[in-house]
Amino acid sequence: MRTIIALQLMFLINTPNHIFCTGVGDTFGTCFGPLSRNRKFGYRLGKGETPEEIRDSMTEVAEGVDTSIALVKMIKERCKGYRLDLKYPILFGVAEIIEGNMKPLEGLQGLMSFPTRMENYDERF
Asked: How far is residue 65 from each of residues 11, 20, 37, 83, measured CA to CA in Å?
């Protein structure tokens, strides 16, 4: 949720209605839906297939794959900050895995090592 809000603020979509109307339903559907192309892609990554192997064998497009890479590129261009991967750990981790720079298990271990803290949803990014 923090990432969705941060992206909305970055693109100047800051009304409370947008926070709950965009992204959340798709996020849940993508994560948990058995017919989700993004979920299938991630599942296969987790099983050890490479992104290239998965793309070559899929007959449908998993939109989240290219979207995650594009969002990371946009964040790097628009946000002039230090360690943006700490502000967007899931998004940056997914992009690193898809680009072949990190294994899924390494990404999970990295996320699980983050210290827990209170999140401020009103922060301007």
From this structure: 20, 23, 10, 22
Task: Measure the CA angle with vertex 17, ends 36 and 8; round to 5°.
Answer: 70
- The type of residue at 70 is A
CA-angle at 69, arms to 64 and 75, nearest 5°: 115
Q: Which helix (H) or strand (E) holds 86?
A: helix 84-87
This prediction's pTM: 0.74
96 versus 87: the higher-pLDDT residue is: 96
User: Measured between alpha carbons, how far is residue 70 from residues 1, 63, 80, 102 in Å?
Assistant: 19, 11, 17, 17
User: Residue 64 above 60 pLDDT?
Assistant: yes
Whole-angstrom CA distances from 99 to 24, 33, 45 are 25, 24, 11
What CA–CA distance (Å, rounded) separates 109 from 80? 27
The percentage of residues in the chain with a pLDDT greater than 70, rounded to a whole number, is 73
**b/e burial code for range 7-20 (CB count within 10 A of at least 16 → b):** bbbbeeeeeeeebe
